[in-house]
Automatic annotation (TrEMBL):
A Pfam entry, by short name: TctC
Source species of the chain: Pararoseomonas baculiformis
CDD domains per UniProt: PBP2_Bug_TTT
Similarity comment: family membership: Belongs to the UPF0065 (bug) family.
Endpoints of the signal sequence: 1-24
Identification of the protein by name: Tripartite tricarboxylate transporter substrate binding protein
Domain of life assignment: Bacteria
Length: 322
């Protein structure tokens, strides 16, 4: 559950300090950002969008490496064990640093002590959509079809305990539904399954959903954000439809624990400037992703707040994994 406060967000136009003179030589080699999800999902799109705009000011390439698995835990654990020299970062989100610690009792990393916060750089809402030919033009029709076939209507997500999974579980509880969960290893394969008709419904990032809905491949029923979004101005929110579901995610950068604070500040400053680039803003707008920039300490506070919010949601849903 993503909650943004004035204190947590500075906005894409924030001005952040550059590194201390002692670290003026950083970086002296390419910087690797591990994306703990498959290529093609929104997490992958937004980091690949900002990486070129960061490479120029840093004077070194920002290289993206996809390492999916275990709801983002595989790639996240690898970064936690990396050298804290500023050359290996993790693309973090609600799954990796707020949800996983609450649902996996034996998680191989500590989201607080194993990482150095750097910056948030984007957030994005989800929409509820259905496969081609499902036969529900609005939320009421969708709920009626699910209730008529308890346990038979399927929904996709990008993993057990993912924000997509928990958004649908929230709807299931509110509407007193019975549905069958079909988890995938990422948003891209999950959305492919929806388009091909293998699965009936899912909560998907608004940008990718709008792209496939534009071609008539899926039907979007509602937006899981507090307000309607510019990309889909005619699509009502889930709250407007009488089923309030907070379905959003955030994206940020962290390094391993004990990474120098000055390096974290430098990367955060470069990311904040990169978010102003017209190419980045155009890409984010098309993906319904909102640019966000924070200082490292503000990101630390934000993640703690988000984890507390998800703890309340998970307690309500009674979800925990072995």
């Amino acid at each position: 559950m993503v909650q943004f406060t004035r204190r947590a967000l500075l906005g894409a136009g924030a001005t952040l300090p550059l590194a201390r003179p002692a670290l003026a030589a950083y970086p002296e080699q390419p910087i690797r950002v591990v994306v703990p999800w498959n290529a093609g999902g929104l997490a992958d799109i937004v980091i690949r969008g900002i990486a070129p705009a960061m490479s120029g000011p840093l004077g070194q390439p920002v290289v993206i490496e996809n390492r999916p698995g275990a709801n983002g835990a595989v790639g996240t654990q690898a970064v936690a064990r990396s050298a804290p020299d500023g050359y290996t970062l993790i693309l973090a989100n609600a799954e990796t640093h707020a949800i996983n610690p609450l649902i996996y009792p034996r998680l191989a990393y500590n989201p607080v002590t194993d990482f150095t916060p750097v910056t948030l750089f984007a957030r994005g809402p989800f929409v509820l959509l259905t496969r081609p030919g499902f036969g529900a033009d609005n939320l009421d029709a969708f709920l009626a079809k699910v209730r008529a076939a308890p346990g038979k209507v399927t929904f996709a997500s990008w993993g057990i305990g993912s924000t997509s999974h928990l958004a649908m579980e929230s709807l299931i509880k509110k509407a007193q539904l019975q549905m069958l969960h079909v988890p995938f290893t990422g948003a891209a394969p999950a959305s492919t399954a929806i388009v091909s008709g293998q699965v009936d419904a899912m909560f998907l990032n608004a940008g990718p959903a709008e792209a496939i809905a534009r071609d008539g491949k899926v039907k979007i029923l509602g937006v899981g954000a507090a307000q309607r979004i510019p990309l889909l101005p005619e699509t009502p929110t889930m709250a407007e439809l009488g089923m309030p579901v907070n379905a959003e995610n955030w994206f940020g950068l962290l390094g391993p624990a004990r990474m120098p604070a000055a390096i974290a500040e430098r990367i955060a400053a470069v990311a904040a400037e990169a978010l102003k680039a017209p190419a980045v803003q155009n890409l984010y707008r098309a993906q319904a992703a909102l640019p966000v920039a924070t200082r490292p300490e503000e990101m630390r506070s934000f993640i703690a707040e988000d984890r507390a919010n998800w703890e309340s949601v998970l307690r309500d849903l009674n979800i925990q994994l072995e």
